[in-house]
Design a protein that fits this description.
The protein is α/β, with parallel strands linked by helices. The protein has one domain. The protein is 53% helix and 14% strand. The protein contains 13 helices and six strands. The chain has a six-stranded parallel beta sheet with strand order 2-1-6-5-3-4, with helices on both faces. α7 links the parallel β3 (101-107) and β4. α8 (136-146) crosses α9 (163-174) and α12 packs antiparallel against α13 (217-245). The longest helix has 29 residues, at 217-245. The chain is globular, with a radius of gyration of 18 Å. The two termini are 16 Å apart.
């Protein structure tokens, strides 16, 4: 299995209508559905076959960022619209509240965890919230304990890659009823205003990564200053490999 295989797994969103249909579909599942995003950082992580399998195991995988747009164009895949959890997850949450809802939030730490849940309007609906520094087995146990067969179970994972994708895969194996697991990265930190969203100019031009690097240079140095050259080296190597295999 090659890393560019997960490009074919990406759900292409071409319009607002497509996005609305996606949300409806995600929230109408009767078993367990997992949703996540792949960006340049996630693509780099997929050099590990086990982590690649975790990304490939997601039921809905969405493209996040200009790097992945370039990757898809390089391998002649239509990139579709850029998607990211910061915009999409609040829309999913709002729509989910139109039915009986049980929310579980795992990730980040207080006060940001509680603030993020509160700012999404989920205080009264959240049966459990826990910081993101426990073992995978611990979260699986919490999930099993708080799962409610009579409601839609919305599990928000905000612990970053690759841990959230690993956990999503383990929860999916249980295949409990009416469960949507979302790999949300820093979504609760954004909702809690711990992390500032990039201005519109940066988002529209695909340069949100540059804003985040400038805002959090120590935390983002490895991901972008080191990670972007690594990302392009992977693309060149994979493109060369596919050319030889034709």
């Amino acid at each position: 299995m090659k890393r560019y295989d997960n490009l074919d797994m990406i759900t292409k969103i071409q319009s607002v209508s497509d996005e609305e249909q996606l949300i409806e579909s995600v929230l109408s599942q009767h078993a367990t559905l997992t949703l996540g995003f792949v960006n340049q950082h996630g693509f780099n992580l997929c050099s590990d076959p086990a982590l690649l399998n975790n990304f490939m195991d997601l039921d809905v995988l969405l493209r996040d960022g200009i790097g992945m747009k370039m990757a898809m164009s390089l391998f002649e895949r239509p990139p579709g619209n850029n998607m990211n959890g910061t915009d999409l997850i609040p829309r999913i949450v709002a729509k989910a509240q139109q039915q009986p809802l049980n929310v579980m939030a795992f990730g980040t730490e207080d006060p940001w965890l509680s603030k993020g849940v509160s700012n999404l309007g989920l205080d009264e609906l959240c049966s459990v919230k826990h910081h993101g520094f426990e073992t995978i087995d611990h979260y699986v146990s919490l999930f099993q304990r708080h799962h409610n067969d009579g409601q839609l179970n919305l599990v928000i994972l905000a612990m970053g890659m690759p841990k959230q994708e690993q956990l999503a895969s383990e929860i999916k194996k249980l295949n409990l009823s009416r469960t949507v697991v979302i790999c949300g990265g820093a979504v609760l930190d954004f909702q809690a205003n711990k992390v500032k969203r990039a201005p519109s100019f940066f988002r529209k031009t695909g340069l949100e990564w540059a804003y985040r690097l400038g805002s959090e240079p120590k935390r983002m140095f490895r991901r972008y200053v080191i990670g972007i050259p690594v990302f392009f080296s992977h693309l060149v190597a994979l493109k060369t490999q596919t050319a030889f295999n034709r």
